[in-house]
Structures are given as structure tokens and as C-alpha cells.
Amino acid sequence: TDGTFRPERLIQMAEAKNLDYRTVLKNVIYARAYSSDHQVLLIKDCQKLVIEKNVKLIIVDSLISHFRAEYIGRGTLANRQQLLNLHIHDLLRLAEMFPELSIVVTNQVQSKPDTFFGDPTKAAGGNIIAHGATIRIYLRKGKGEQRIAKMLDAPNLPEGEAIFVVGEGGISDI
Predict the structure, then answer these.
(1) Amino acid 67: pLDDT
(2) At what angle do helices 36-44 and 77-97 cross, to 10 degrees?
(3) Are 163 and 146 a contacting pair, CB within 8 Å?
(4) Strand 121-123 relative to strand 109-111, pairing
(5) pLDDT score of 123
(6) Distance CA 125, CA 84 (A)
(7) How far out from the chain centre does Cα 36 lie?
(8) Most CB within 10 Å of its CB: which of 28, 63, 111, 162?
(9) 122 burial level (CB within 10 Å; 0-12, 13-18, 19+)
(10) How far is it, in rounded angstroms, from Cα 136 to Cα 171?
(11) Are 140 and 100 in contact (CB under 8 A)?
């Protein structure tokens, strides 16, 4: 949704792992959503692709981007949240229909100006997104090149953190 997918990055990571980047790219199906309605339709059409192409991973980056841009103001909030809830349930239904399929969605954050202590950011989209996700991980920058992944919610895992680095070869432990 944000238009940030770069095949050049996949080529870089494939080469770092001594993989043939042509084979890697052949296994990627990319679809750019240009509106919230288009995004919803792309997910509704995914079932055919999952079957035909044996898809194992769907990534939606970012889930809420179009919804925030198109539904502005408090007057549209209820409609936005209702459509977003239906969209999330379509994603959950896909994951239930195909047990080997993983679905990863990213979300935007927004500033909470009334926060005096702790992290002043919160997930955009409210409780609809928080309750719709099975596992929630908060990613943030750490010191220098470090990144921190904090497990916020998972049905079978405790809260915890992992520190990692994103480099030319992809994600690596410290």
C-alpha cells in the first residue's frame, strides 16, 4: 500500500545468502493496492492465488495506510473501522483455510502527545487491529544499527524482546 517494495532489496539479500536471485524473484507475487477498496479486493482474490501458486506467505504493508488517508475525521471513523474489521476477518479466514499460510501485516504508529513517560507512540487503527491480530510485535530502533522486536501479545508466548540488525543480507542476530 505504501509503494515501498523493492525487488533490488530481494536481489541483494539473495546474493548475500548465495541464492539465485532469479529463482527468488520468480517466487514473489507483488500486487500494489491503490485504495482501501482495491486492497480489500486484492485480499478477497488471494484464495485463488494461494491454491494455484502454493502461496505460503502474504504480507500487507501497511494495513491501515489507505484507510487513514481516505476516511478523514471523526465522522467517518465508524465506517472506516467497520470496513477495516471486515478486511482483517478476510485475512484471518484465509489463514484458517490454509494452515501452512502465514499472513504478516504491518501497521503505522501515531504519536500520543499526552504521554509524559515511556514510549509516546501507539498503533494506529485502534482496538480493531489489536484484537484482530493473533500475534503482535512492536518493532523499534535501538542503539546505532540495532532494532528491537518486542512481543506484545501472543496466545502461547510470553512478552519478550529480541535485538537484531537489518543489513545487506537481511535480518541477523546480534
Answers:
(1) 96
(2) 20
(3) yes
(4) antiparallel
(5) 84
(6) 8
(7) 15
(8) 63
(9) middle
(10) 19
(11) no
Give 122's pLDDT tier (boundaries 50, 70, 90): confident
What region, left, alpha or beta, does residue 146 occupy, with left being phi > 0 and alpha being psi -120 to 50 degrees? beta
Q: What is the DSSP letter of 157?
A: S
Name the residue with cell 501458486. 53
Helix axis angle, 46-53 relative to 36-44, nearest 10°? Answer: 40
> 3-class SS at 64?
coil
3-class DSSP state for residue 74? helix
DSSP code at position 140: E
98, HSE (Cβ side, Cα atoms, 13 Å): 21
What local confidence, expressed as pLDDT, does residue 32 receive?
96
**pLDDT of 127 over the 90 cut:** no
Q: Specify burial of residue 148 (Cβ count, 10 A radius: 0-12, 13-18, 19+).
A: middle
pLDDT band of 114, cuts 50, 70, 90: confident
Please state, in angstroms and rounded to a whole number, the distance separating the CA atoms of residues 54 and 49.
Answer: 7
Question: Residue type at 125?
Answer: G
Size of the chain in residues: 174
